[in-house]
Design a protein that fits this description.
Low-confidence stretches: none
Radius of gyration: 15 Å
Number of helices: 5
Length: 127
C-alpha cells in the first residue's frame, strides 16, 4: 500500500495542474478562472515538484523522505507566492481561486506534518 503522504502529494499535484490549465485559459466544464500565465507556470512547477516527491514516496526510494519534504516546500512557496500576489492586486481575484490556494496549502501542510511524525519516516522506509 502506498504511503498516505504520496497520495496527498499526487492529489495536490492534480489540483495544481487543474489550476494551471485554467490559468492558461483552458476551460474545464463550467469552471473558469482568469487567464494568468505566470500563475500557470508557477502552478505547473509546483505540481512537478509534488509529482517528483510523491513518486519517490510511493516507490519508497532511497531519498523518499527528503524528496517528499522538498516537493511540499516548493509547493508551499509557490502557493504563498500566488496568495501574496493576489493580495497586493497583481492579478484578478476570485473566490474559487482563494479557496484553491487555501486547499492546496492545507494539503501540503498536512503532508509535511505527516512527514515530520515518527510514523511518517517509518512509512517511507524501503522494505
Amino acid at each position: 500500500m502506498p504511503p498516505v503522504v504520496a497520495i496527498l502529494m499526487l492529489a495536490n499535484a492534480a489540483l495544481l495542474l487543474f489550476g494551471a490549465a485554467q490559468h492558461a485559459g483552458i476551460r474545464i466544464g463550467p469552471l473558469t478562472e482568469p487567464v494568468i500565465p505566470p500563475a500557470a507556470i508557477v502552478e505547473t512547477l509546483c505540481a512537478l515538484a509534488l509529482i517528483w516527491g510523491g513518486v519517490a514516496a510511493w516507490r519508497r526510494s532511497r531519498h523518499a523522505w527528503t524528496s517528499a519534504l522538498a516537493g511540499n516546500l516548493v509547493a508551499i512557496a509557490g502557493v504563498i507566492l500566488g496568495m501574496v500576489a493576489l493580495a497586493i492586486g497583481a492579478g484578478p481575484r476570485t473566490a474559487s481561486n482563494d479557496w484553491y490556494h487555501r486547499f492546496m496549502l492545507a494539503l501540503a501542510a498536512a503532508a509535511i506534518l505527516i512527514l515530520l511524525l515518527p510514523s511518517g519516516r517509518i512509512a517511507l522506509r524501503r522494505w
